[in-house]
Automatic annotation (TrEMBL):
Biological process according to GO: tricarboxylic acid cycle
Positions of the catalytic residues: 305, 362
UniProt pathway: Carbohydrate metabolism; tricarboxylic acid cycle; isocitrate from oxaloacetate: step 1/2
Entry protein name: Citrate synthase
InterPro entries listed in its UniProt record: Citrate_synth-like_lrg_a-sub (IPR016142), Citrate_synth-like_sm_a-sub (IPR016143), Citrate_synthase (IPR002020), Citrate_synthase_AS (IPR019810), Citrate_synthase_bac-typ (IPR024176), Citrate_synthase_sf (IPR036969), Citrate_synthase_typ-I (IPR010953)
GO-annotated molecular function: citrate synthase activity
CDD domains from the UniProt entry: EcCS_like
One Pfam family matching this protein: Citrate_synt
UniProt keywords, alphabetically: Membrane, Transferase, Transmembrane, Transmembrane helix, Tricarboxylic acid cycle
Positions of transmembrane segments: 363-386
Amino acid sequence: MGDQAKLSVGGAENDYAVLKGSVGPDVIDIRKLYAQTGKFTFDPGFTSTASCESALTYIDGDEGVLLHRGYPIGQLAENSSFMETSYLLLNGELPSKDELTSFENTITRHTMLHEQLATFYRGFRRDAHPMAIMCGVVGALSAFYHDSTDISDPEHRKISSHRLIAKMPTIAAMAYKYSVGQPFVYPDNKLSYTGNFLRMTFGVPAEEYEVIPAVEKAMDRIFILHADHEQNASTSTVRLAGSSGANPFACIAAGIACLWGPAHGGANEAALNMLKEIGTPDRIQHYIDRAKDKNDPFRLMGFGHRVYKNYDPRATVMQSTVREVFDALKVNDPLFETALRLEEIALSDPYFAEKKLFPNVDFYSGIILSAIGFPTTMFTVLFALARTVGWVAQWNEMISDPGQKIGRPRQLYTGPTQRDYVPLDKR
Ligand code: CMC
């Protein structure tokens, strides 16, 4: 028998198995708690609760470690491609040369959208936030691709996963094109996944679009950095939606909706807006003081993380990518200096040190994306595009698990107890 945890409730003691992962904290298996004690656990925000078993991604937040299928994010960002990392997340191992080529071909063949989807965009206002468009269009995919929505069939799951990964750049680029009033650009399957996305976003029919290799590489790396992040809010949303048997397109649309929030994927947009508002380094202290003031709702966007209590390893890569992109595009955004100075001031301030608040992935990403030419409203869309592979990999893992039950949290009820209905004329 492995380790056991004892819980004493109302004088009665019960044993609960302590489960061990391959690495990381052990977990106490309390699945029988309610049947044995008639009590639930209370953990809003899941700060101490593992919602599932997963073999995809591991984070050690104290040490600033992020591994995908065991491989450190720094090594993947340096040596891998987004397509290869996607294969790794979906299949568990790095592909051979042939496997990678075949995977890239499959994804490339699915990049086009059903032509009728183009008319869907026209229902949105031109000034609609592209994340609103993403939620709508991705949810609508299930109306166009119902031949791959039998979730009990592994082949259907595979096809819909490939479709989602492949079509997301096309959908995202079209959301951008629609907002600027330019014609949609069809995929060009000669280009890489990321090169194709850049061309569909920034190309126009009147001119030949040339993909700048350094920008393509930086963008691809940004996609790798966002590919998966274990049980974050949007991934948990995808799993919860999927646990009811909902189709994959609906589940990913739910994930996109959750990602949009400023505490999650929306932070990249909020972080750049904040840097713009701060403007010059001499104004930083005022914003640091505001972030520390309990009576002020202002927070340093791009700072802090539920899991990382150390430097987010993705932020390290992101920071070094800023210079690469600046050099390639021969630009220099003074906001980068403001960001570096803000980081320096915050990290030397006891408030941030005590609370272990460090820059996260979103702190520097906006500066790069802005230099490449994306408006801030597109930042979270790019996060969604890249995270789609993590979402589908996690969704697949969950559906493949025979022990999977519908996700159904309990609650601590604090509302009125039973009372009789009072007719309107007696109230
Ligand atoms: N600026 C100032 N104070 C902060 C910040 C911040 N960015 N983040 C946390 N704190 C303080 C917070 O006020 C609290 O203080 P106290 O204990 O005195 O009440 C303490 O630190 C703990 O914060 P929390 O909100 O209880 O922590 P959490 O784990 O629930 O929240 C977070 C994590 C990421 C939502 C939060 O740090 C935050 O709002 N950061 C800014 C938004 C952001 O950058 N989000 C992107 C996350 S990374 C990308 C992604 O995965 O989506």
